[in-house]
Amino acid sequence: MRRMPPEERRHELVAAAIRVIARQGVAAATTRAITAEAGMPLGAFTYIFGTQDELMTAVIDTVIEQERFAAESRAIDPTSLASAIRSGLEGYIDLLERDPADEIALLELALVARRRDPQGQMRAQWETYYTAAEQVLTYAAEITGNRWTQPVADLARHLVVVVDGITTTWLADGDSDAARRTASFAAAAFAAASAPLGAPTEGSPRADGDR
């Protein structure tokens, strides 16, 4: 086996875990199966990850970061907030089409977490999603010169629900055109909860007509 730095080895093990989970489920993702998938000796796992839970956390963090990066780095259209949100969602759909195994692995991990600890691990996984969604919404508002008129935390939850729906429905029917139509519909709904920077807020003198 060729020598590789620890960070590269970590990346390979995470990628191998995603493939095993997506193909066979979480129960099959033993350290032996993952290292075999990665083409590494069994000892490589304990050298990089102390426990199986640490690896599963790394899988979740890696996939979420890829999703956020896809949403932010695709050719984001800054002409309007609706366009920015739509293009960000389309970036996510591109990622989903390219490698659905990532999302299958996340769903597998979430369901196992829900069975093991109904009020703990799955909730923590979704809290990570909410944080990533807030970052995307904040970025979209910044690059389009807008502000949100509703709490960003509430909007982030809505965005996670939209992405979850797009994901599971696409995994069921593979209809990318329909997924993009959903993205466009959702983007318009999010844009309705925004206003240009500098626009008067509700209840301000200008908003009430007091000049």
UniProtKB/TrEMBL annotation:
Alphabetized UniProt keyword annotations: DNA-binding, Transcription, Transcription regulation
MF terms in GO: DNA-binding transcription factor activity; transcription cis-regulatory region binding
DNA-binding positions: 30-49
Pfam family, one: TetR_N
HTH tetR-type domain ranges (all copies): 7-67
Origin: domain of life: Bacteria
InterPro entries membership: Homeodomain-like_sf (IPR009057), HTH-type_TetR-like_transc_reg (IPR050109), HTH_TetR (IPR001647), Tet_transcr_reg_TetR-rel_C_sf (IPR036271)
PANTHER family, sorted: HTH-TYPE TRANSCRIPTIONAL REGULATOR BETI, HTH-TYPE TRANSCRIPTIONAL REGULATOR RUTR
Name of the featured protein: Regulatory protein TetR
Species annotation: Microbacterium oleivorans
